[in-house]
Amino acid sequence: MHTYVLGGGCFWCLDAVYQRTRGVSSVLSGYTGGADPAPHYRSVCNGGTGHAEAVAVTFDPAIVPSEVILDMFFTTHDPTTLNRQGYDVGTQYRSVMFPLDAAQRELFDQSARKFASMYPEPLVTTFEAPADFFVAEGIHQDYYNRFSSEGYCRVIIDPKLAKARKYYATWLEEPATPRA
């Protein structure tokens, strides 16, 4: 099993995509990359902690290749907007990758180089040193599966899922039942 720590805007969005990816055994939404030793949703949203909203995606590379996980990351958020994803603005929504070792750093770098040529604007995705990962509050785990009819989910997450389905349908499956 491999774990990648990725931030691409609101963690609910990446969580929704990776929850549907075959071979992914776990997706945890959390906070990382900042200085606050006890971050929580409100403090991170206020932008003063330095933490990014991120997901820790654990997957089996024998089922889903690492490249697919990384391709989904670069496809389902805009890696060309600095500290912003749509209406979500602030350093907590930065496009960021936290490679856990040199091999991940090389894979992440290869993926970024590949996608740099696909966007009309330069990528602003940063690579940051691994840091403590603080699991977000329970309400933020598996958010889309539990609250898919809410406005944010319909307006922001649904289009990202549609994009994932368009390009990665062979790797996706709907969860059997939403978790409570």
Helix fraction?
25-40%
User: What is the number of helical segments per DSSP (H or I, 4+ residues)?
Assistant: 6
Poorly predicted parts = none
Strand composition percent: 15-25%
Oligomer: single chain
Spell the H/E element sequence. Answer: EHEHEHEEEHEEHH
The largest beta-sheet arranges its strands as: 7-6-1-3-2-8
What is the mean predicted local confidence, pLDDT?
A: 94
First-to-last CA distance: 26 Å
The main β sheet shows up as: 6 strands, mixed
- Kindly provide the radius of gyration, computed on alpha-carbon positions and rounded to a whole number of angstroms: 15 Å
Overall shape:
globular
| Number of DSSP E strands | 8
Helix and strand content put the structural class at: alpha+beta
Describe the protein's topology:
Layout: E1 2-8, H1 11-19, E2 24-32, H2 41-45, E3 52-59, H3 66-76, E4 84-85, E5 88-89, E6 95-98, H4 102-116, E7 126-127, E8 134-135, H5 143-147, H6 151-168
Parallel strand pairs: 6-7
Antiparallel strand pairs: 1-3, 1-6, 2-3, 2-8, 4-5
Helix pairs in contact: 1-3, 1-6, 3-4, 3-6
Descriptive account of the structure:
By secondary structure, the chain is an alpha+beta fold. It contains 6 helices and 8 strands. The strands form 2 sheets. Strands 7-6-1-3-2-8 form a 6-stranded mixed β-sheet, covered by helices on one side. Strands 4-5 form a two-stranded antiparallel ribbon. Helix 1 crosses helix 3 (66-76), helix 1 (11-19) crosses helix 6 (151-168) and helix 3 (66-76) crosses helix 4. The longest helix is centred in the last third of the chain and has 18 residues, at 151-168. The mean pLDDT is 94.
